[in-house]
Amino acid sequence: MREAGSHSGRFVTLEGIDGAGKSTHLGWIAARIAERGHRVVTTREPGGTPLGEHLRDLLLHQQMTSDSEALLMFAARREHLELVVRPALERGEWVLCDRFTDATFAYQGGGHGVPLPYIAALAAWVQGTTRVDRTFLFDISPEASQMRLAHAGGDARGADKFERQDAAFFARVRDTYLDRARAEPGRFRVIDAARPIDEVRARLDALLAELEAERSPT
Q: What CA–CA distance (Å, rounded) separates 89 from 11?
């Protein structure tokens, strides 16, 4: 997350429901950022640190209350910010993160019903003045998402507990993501993830150029 005015790094996050295709494009985006002459750190949430990866395993596979999920997400996030994100941004690097706080609003809030003001309070505490520069929201219908997950995963026993949720859950998650995009149009760029890969990447390339062209923090 960026503290306004402190450095030239950029914090870019990728969001979307499971099956939207973030992982398909993550490495390509990182390579394009590097080709543009920027040092880039690729990371993910939950995860990104030894503690975060341990908590990720619990969050994806251990049954727990929705409130506990949200709290553990922010515990992992605080560690991630302190050890990975902020140091990279202070070095002037670009940070490319697979999911961040928007995912907690969407999954634990929209999906599981944790009150959004509670999540907002945790975000304010954990993140402080740090902000994401740009969020690429990969948007796809829950029906298309489930078809992709079924095709990619095969046996549902190999899926994590979020991937095993039904279409109604993913509809709520998607709606929350889109609500957040409408509320913050300056930060979000919504991408039609149902389009062919080459079209999605052309759109992403244009959006990276747009972000690069914006006035650097001073």
A: 7
CA distance 218 to 68: 39
Question: What is each CA distance from 39 to 3, 42, 97, 212, in whole angstroms?
Answer: 19, 10, 14, 13
Cα distance between residue 71 and residue 126, in whole Å: 11
Domain boundaries, the chain: 2-213
Residue whose pair of structure tokens reads 């740009």 in the numeric block: 134
pLDDT in tens, 82-139: 999 999 999 999 999 999 999 999 999 999 999 999 999 999 999 998 999 999 999 9
**Of the candidates 72, 187, 208, the residue with the CA atom closest to the CA atom of residue 131:** 187
Question: What's the predicted TM-score (pTM) here?
Answer: 0.91
Q: Residues 2-213: name the CATH superfamily.
A: P-loop containing nucleotide triphosphate hydrolases (3.40.50.300)
Query: Please, are residues 9 and 2 in contact by the beta-carbon 8 Å criterion?
Result: yes
Q: How far apart are CA 33 and CA 38, in angstroms?
A: 6
Name residues whose C-beta falls within 8 Å of residue 81's C-beta, 6 or more positions apart in sequence.
Answer: 1, 126, 127, 130
Cα 208-209-213 angle, rounded to 5 deg: 115
What is the radius of gyration, based on Cα positions, of the chain? 17
Query: What is the C-alpha separation between 36 and 197, in angstroms, rounded?
Result: 21
- Residue 118's closest CA among 54, 167, 68, 179? 68
Pairing of strands 130-131, 2-3: antiparallel
In whole angstroms, give the CA distance from residue 74 to residue 104: 9
